[in-house]
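[audit] Reproducing an earlier prediction to check determinism. Same input, same settings, fresh worker. If the tokens differ from the archived copy the diff job will pick it up downstream; this log only records the rerun itself.
[audit] input (459 residues):
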Amino acid sequence: TEEINEWHPNTRVNTLWIESMDTSSVLEMILTYFMIDMWFDPVAREVKIAAISAWQESSGMLKENNQIDFQSVKKDKNESLRSTRALVIYDKRFLATSDSVENYKKASLYRRTELESPDLFGEPKTKRFDFTFLLDKDSADLLVNRWVNRYLNPSTYTWTTQERKLGFNVGQVVDTQTLLDVGFNGSPSSSTRSQIISIKPNYKKEGRDYTIKALSYEPLFTTGSEIIITGLVSDINLYIQYAGAPSQAVELTFVFDGVIGSGTSSVIPAIRAGAFPSGSKIIMILANGADLMSKGGDGGDGGDLFIKASTPDVFSSTPPKNGSNAGVVYDAEGVDTDIYFSGSTPSASFPLADGYIIAPSGGAGGFNADTSASGDGGDGGDGRSSGLAGLFGNASGAAANGAVGSNGVDNKLTGSFGLDGADNEAVGGLKGSGVSDSGGNVVFFGSNASRYINGSGDH
């Protein structure tokens, strides 16, 4: 419970089993999908578990010719675990149906394409998990993110350790420094992070030593790391989808490079910070014309018209629908954030910022029906994903659908953004927000007057 609470704070591993399953199969499912290690410790004579996280900190340093016996180290690349991509299909709505793919509704994919090269870690390789009903969106996103970032380039290390130097346990994450790991100049590298996966005692006439196995462990990010986000992506949770849910306060830089933040729903922010621990800080750099925007509000439907054939001069109608609100581009969710729109940045890789954050517009309200026609629909609001047009009401007549909002891709500041939807006979939806602080301290850098539309945001 402590491990789950630390590494999956929003997850409850509770489920109703609707058919008999072998105990080992149930355990394997839970351990796999929530990335939990389980092993028997032959020294402590106990069964132990530990949640696997790419944020796991090292508990100490093991050096060759000290804790590691001199020239006892063997290193083998673990190709069976290496993954540059991971995919899981989940969300089985009706548990009694078969396990074929059409009965699952969602998928989560994470990839590190910048590392898919024979000169780096190797050709692309995908870990495909079995379909599962155990996961929700957050736990599925966390699974594929942590899997790839841990197993980008795994190697198995084997060595011997003298009993008097055995100050570590199975499951522990350590930094190792061996003569097999060298830098480009031929000198030993500073360290390799590994997890101890086996400690086997060897009995000899003069006492005992231990054969140790460790699996190299790619730390996800450290404070000060830069995470680059490219492409047209939707509903970003920085904490889970890109940072791997650190359990302690961190400072991370997110570089948005391109057209980013296509919100699929005006209810969900296009980009949200997520549940970073208290004291964390986010630095956002908008690079190479990055264009951040969320979804425009939908137009309201027109009123319906009802006429009885027996009394054509008598009619009744329903009222038109209100337009819907536009979305939020970035919700800091209480996390302190620096946003660089233009000018110099603290990044060595992206020293100049060049980007936009643009609030979308609300959808217009619908129109009333009259004696001859149903009501017209309201126009959709402009946004990254344009607001849908309101539909004309039911009945024959000259009513018309509203207009679909303008799609904001590459329009930057030229559209009708950051405006409330028009009040027709029904009320228009509220304008969206560029940035919502939600209790965090958000600071803008650069010449943002021509690069930012606030709408109903906090700036």
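[audit] rerun output stored. Observation attached for the diff report: The helical segments are 2-7, 23-33, 137-150, 238-242.
[audit] end
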